[in-house]
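Hi R.,

Here's the chain you asked about this morning:
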Amino acid sequence: MFPEERHGDPAFVVIGVYTGPVEAGKEVLAPLQELDDPIVDLSEPMSFITLHELQDDIFPTGREYDWWALFADELTGNRR
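And here is the predicted structure, written out as tokens:
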């Protein structure tokens, strides 16, 4: 899923989810696509199950993971 030449590079993952009409979701989540140059952009309508299956390869079963979540009304400010 991730380009081999980027393996080992520091990175962060942003997963935006909108549950509602597709066109409204595209508008609401558009600012996430402006955060930076993505290594991978999987932005597209998908089922809830597909969303979770995307993470299967990078988060194998049996390891301990620490998850943080944030609900943001808007994204503002300097990103660097």
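One quick note: DSSP finds two helices and no strands in the chain.

Cheers,
M.
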